[in-house]
Design brief:
two-stranded parallel ribbon, about 45% helix, globular, binds ligand KET
């Protein structure tokens, strides 16, 4: 029956992480996957998450199915987190929000919904982007293209070319945008560029689709929602998929949400109905444990303030690692410009290392990064950063 199956080559990010775990070398360094590790190289369990779980356990509640659209408490908390509690779109009921299976679940549900209700629409994402954006939209039957984004010559954004490309898209095109901490480059639009982009989007009949997977790792929790709020303020209709995997360090809980900001409350109600229909035929409903954690952490004041402090500490530790890596590389390779390690934001840096250099780093030095040259800076710590910088210097001619 299945002898004709093609072998699965594996996902470039997840397979590399597995290869890392199997590597017996004690000094190996994992810069592959977008996961925050603490200075001891562990995935932290935040105290606010432990406290939320302890309360849930003490209450001993049953575990019924959640509604298709997820927990009401979590959905409301997500809207307040992303848009601000008093935002007119929230107050007017113009936003359809669903709790989803990670933000990946949300991205895919949105893509399926687009295929069903805007069947002619095609998707444009940044060049480069997270590879799974393409896979998920193509998997939904939506054709995927790219718009210019990263400029290897300057390490910045090709903003003019990006604007030009977006200004020529067919009506109802989907424009996928990283709301903050661009993956894989770490290069974001400035606020001024966001404002320019939004006024362009307002002139075009296109559907922006924001991916907010690293909220808090750029400038702060509210600050990193800048693009989301700007689009909402401008009256645009758009999607935003957001994740708690990284910001609450709850990767395996699959905690995320999808919001569709609509033109009216009536439109939002229709949209919520059809998004629910999409979920029902995919995975029926999301998980109750993730909802319990996220809604408590976001809404119970002591947990919320502990979380905000944790996010700040994670962000600051990454910034400190950027500085150490930069300082060691500058000392070892004088005359070369490594300033991009300092200017890029969030978990990732785009090193410009070639696939051959990446292979050498892994084989000779046990330093794992994906072959695009992206490193997850959060895999660095005080115990491995110098060694990693020396290994990088060794493969850079
Ligand atoms: N969006 C982006 C931009 C992203 O980098 C990830 C995960 C996700 C969505 C998915 O998050 P979740 O809410 O857990 O479903 N990225 C890292 C892990 C992965 O590839 O799955 C990564 O790029 O390493």
């Amino acid at each position: 029956m299945f002898q004709h199956l093609e072998p699965y080559a594996g996902d470039p990010i997840l397979s590399l992480n597995e290869a890392f775990l199997e590597d017996p070398r004690p000094h190996k360094v994992n810069l592959s996957i977008g996961i925050y590790f603490d200075d001891a190289g562990r995935i932290p369990v935040l105290q606010c998450v432990r406290d939320a779980e302890a309360k849930m356990l003490a209450e001993g509640g049953a575990k019924p199915y959640l509604p298709i659209e997820g927990s009401p408490a979590m959905r409301e908390a997500v809207q307040h987190l992303l848009f601000g509690a008093g935002h007119p779109a929230v107050k007017a009921g113009r936003i359809a929000t669903l709790q989803t299976i990670g933000s990946s679940g949300g991205l895919k549900v949105g893509a399926d919904f687009i295929k069903r209700w805007l069947p002619e629409s095609q998707m444009w994402m940044s060049d480069p982007s997270w590879d799974n954006h393409r896979a998920m939209f193509e998997g939904a039957g939506v054709a995927v293209h790219t718009y210019p984004y990263y400029d290897p010559a300057t390490g910045g954004v090709r903003f003019d070319a990006m604007r030009e490309a977006i200004s020529r898209l067919p009506a109802r095109s989907v424009v996928l945008l990283h709301a903050c901490c661009h993956n894989p480059t770490g290069v974001d639009l400035s606020r001024e560029q966001w404002r320019e982009l939004v006024s362009l989007l307002q002139q075009r009949e296109v559907l922006p689709y924001l991916d907010l997977a690293y909220q808090g790792y750029g400038d702060g929790i509210a600050e990193d929602a800048y693009a989301v709020r700007l689009l909402a303020d401008s009256g645009l209709v758009f999607f935003v998929a957001n994740s708690f995997s990284k910001s609450m360090s709850v990767y395996g809980e699959r905690a995320g949400a999808l919001s569709l900001v609509c033109g009216s409350a009536a439109e939002a109600e229709l949209a919520l109905g059809q998004l629910k229909a999409t979920v029902r035929r995919n995975y029926s409903s999301p998980g109750i444990h993730a909802a319990g954690i996220v809604s408590r952490v976001l809404t119970e004041p002591p947990l919320r303030s502990a979380w905000e402090a944790d996010v700040a500490a994670m962000r600051e530790r990454i910034q400190a690692m950027r500085k150490s890596l930069h300082a060691t590389l500058c000392a070892m390779k004088p005359g070369r410009d490594f300033g991009y390690f300092l200017s890029q934001r969030g978990m990732f840096s785009y090193t410009g290392l070639s696939a051959a250099q990446v292979d050498r780093l892994r084989e000779e030095f046990g330093v794992y990064l994906i072959r695009s040259g992206r490193i997850c800076v959060a895999g660095l710590n005080t115990g491995n950063v110098e060694r990693t910088a020396r290994a990088m210097a060794a493969v850079i001619e």
